[in-house]
């Protein structure tokens, strides 16, 4: 209403407009006075101005994905002392909302007659160090030119995405590309447990031979049981919520999906706060692990 009065006061006058609108002339003048002299405002209002500017910066840096909880954690990490309820209040007031993860999953085909490895994980998605346990899965993206598929390999220790591939074909080549990237990115680690579901891509001879040749130990979950690969499906859910469902309504094809995935994986690994590892990024969590190893060695 104040903006409306500003626009029309020269033609109609402030008091005539206020008689029509539900606002007193004194309220209008008080508002304009505070705009000209912000130091007259209450301390809470002044603090709110500072906090909302920081909240908007952090929220926009996350590409509008963070909700109040993660915005608050990032503010704490930057040394900004603010109550979580204040962050929630201001985000609600200014219409800032994070991404909400949806539900639903399309399952892949599997073949019960194929020879498969045992389940070495048994839903225990924990690791004491990097390259102890990897989980693998892929998901579907509908585009205007047809279906596109994205495969991920995640290191369980810090939830880092160590391999990924976007493809327009749901085949062994797609998951092999993600596996090869993970092996190279992690400098050919040995005795890593690689856990997947029973999708035919992961049970193919080429894929299992590659794992064997690389010193990677295969683990396969129970058919049709989503909990047996829950961590990988969680990452798929985040990917769908924070990239596919959020950035665009219509994806044209593999090229724009691949570019968006590249940007998201880089942000996911280097910047995104993860609650399960103490609200730091995967790369920061791993760095702390290796720094502690060095300090322990020096102390010894």
From TrEMBL:
Integrase catalytic domain ranges (all copies): 126-290
Alphabetized NCBIfam families for the sequence: transpos_IS3 (NF033516)
Top-level lineage group: Bacteria
Name listed for the protein in its UniProt record: Mobile element protein
Native organism taxonomy: Bacteria, Pseudomonadati, Pseudomonadota, Gammaproteobacteria, Moraxellales
SUPFAM superfamilies: Ribonuclease H-like
Entry GO MF terms: nucleic acid binding
Gene3D superfamilies documented for this protein: Ribonuclease H-like superfamily/Ribonuclease H
Biological process, per Gene Ontology: DNA integration
Organism: Psychrobacter nivimaris
Pfam families: HTH_21, rve, rve_2
């Amino acid at each position: 209403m104040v903006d409306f009065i500003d626009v029309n006061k020269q033609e109609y006058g402030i008091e005539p407009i206020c008689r029509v609108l539900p606002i007193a002339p004194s309220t209008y003048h008080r508002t304009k006075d505070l705009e000209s002299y912000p130091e007259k405002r209450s301390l809470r209002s002044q603090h709110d101005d500072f906090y909302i500017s920081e909240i908007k910066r952090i929220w926009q840096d996350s590409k509008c994905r963070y909700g109040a909880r993660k915005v608050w954690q990032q503010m704490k990490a930057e040394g900004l002392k603010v109550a979580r309820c204040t962050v929630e209040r201001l985000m609600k007031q200014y219409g800032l909302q994070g991404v909400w993860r949806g539900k639903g999953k399309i399952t892949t085909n599997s073949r019960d007659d194929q020879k498969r490895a045992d389940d070495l994980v048994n839903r225990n998605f924990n690791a004491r160090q990097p390259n102890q346990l990897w989980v693998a899965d892929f998901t579907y993206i509908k585009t205007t030119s047809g279906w596109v598929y994205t495969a991920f390999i995640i290191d369980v220790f810090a939830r880092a995405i160590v391999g990924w591939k976007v493809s327009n074909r749901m085949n062994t080549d797609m998951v092999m590309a993600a596996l090869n990237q993970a092996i190279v990115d992690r400098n050919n680690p040995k005795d890593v447990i690689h856990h997947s579901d029973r999708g035919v891509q992961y049970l193919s001879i080429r894929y299992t031979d590659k794992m064997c040749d690389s010193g990677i130990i295969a683990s396969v979950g129970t058919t049709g049981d989503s909990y047996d690969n829950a961590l990988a499906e969680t990452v798929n859910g985040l990917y769908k919520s924070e990239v596919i469902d959020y950035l665009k309504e219509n994806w044209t094809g593999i090229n724009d999906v691949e570019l968006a995935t590249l940007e998201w994986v880089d942000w996911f690994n280097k910047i995104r706060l993860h609650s399960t590892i103490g609200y730091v990024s995967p790369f920061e969590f791993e760095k702390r692990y290796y720094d502690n190893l060095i300090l322990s060695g020096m102390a010894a």
